Amino acid sequence: MTHDPLDRVRAALINPSGASSDFDLNPETVLPEGRRLRPAGVLVPILPGRDGPRVILTKRSSALKHHPGQIAFPGGKQDPGDADVIAAALREANEEIGLDPALVEVMGTMPMHETVTGFCVTPVIGRVLRGFDPVPEAGEVDEVFDVPLTYLLARSNYRIEARYWRGTLRRYYTVPFGPYYIWGATARILRGIADVSEQP
Questions:
Q1: What is the spatial distance between Cα 179 and Cα 182, in angstroms, rounded to a whole number?
Q2: Is residue 178 classed exposed, middle or buried when 0-12, 13-18 and 19+ CB atoms within 10 A define those classes?
Q3: 155: which DSSP letter?
Q4: 131-162 burial string, b = 16+ CB within 10 Å, else e?
Q5: Among residues 87, 84, 61, which one has the least CA distance to residue 72?
Q6: Model pLDDT, residue 139
Q7: How confident is residue 27, by pLDDT bands cut at 50, 70 and 90?
Q8: How many Å is the Cα radius of gyration of the chain?
Q9: Which of 58, 59, 127, 146 is 20 to 30 A from 183, alpha carbon to alpha carbon?
């Protein structure tokens, strides 16, 4: 019997975990009360593939001021003209990788994720209805690639690593894939989906 990985994503959307943050693995961190988080949306685009669904990710430009060279979902902060964070995620995906919003079927959203940079990020799960040719945004995106969904749903592929950040040892999730070092908020969001998705 075969199992459709998209069914596991649907299960995660029906029974989501709680909110997550970049501080989940660092419980000793004391966050200031009354902090104001800026709303943002990222698209988790699931593309049909010959061997099963694949998740589209980007490698940010090494010339960027914030998070240069890191692996990320297409997305960004909600602008005044965006109806909501879903609209922001779709707009940013169009700008960053040339993904027409008309090609995306929004399946739902996962709980928010708080980042160390002060954003309240909502992951928007979207099924890409057919293949498309990505167009990386010059100066912002160095590369667009995709990873098998089944790989990202396997919790055994995740590791916890640590490094010093601003003088403090910070622990975080990673889910390396080939030459790509997927870590931080991107890996934490993916791990959240894997944690609550139905096991095959």
A1: 10
A2: exposed
A3: G
A4: eeebebbeebbbebbbbbbbbbbeeebbeeee
A5: 61
A6: 85
A7: confident
A8: 16
A9: 127
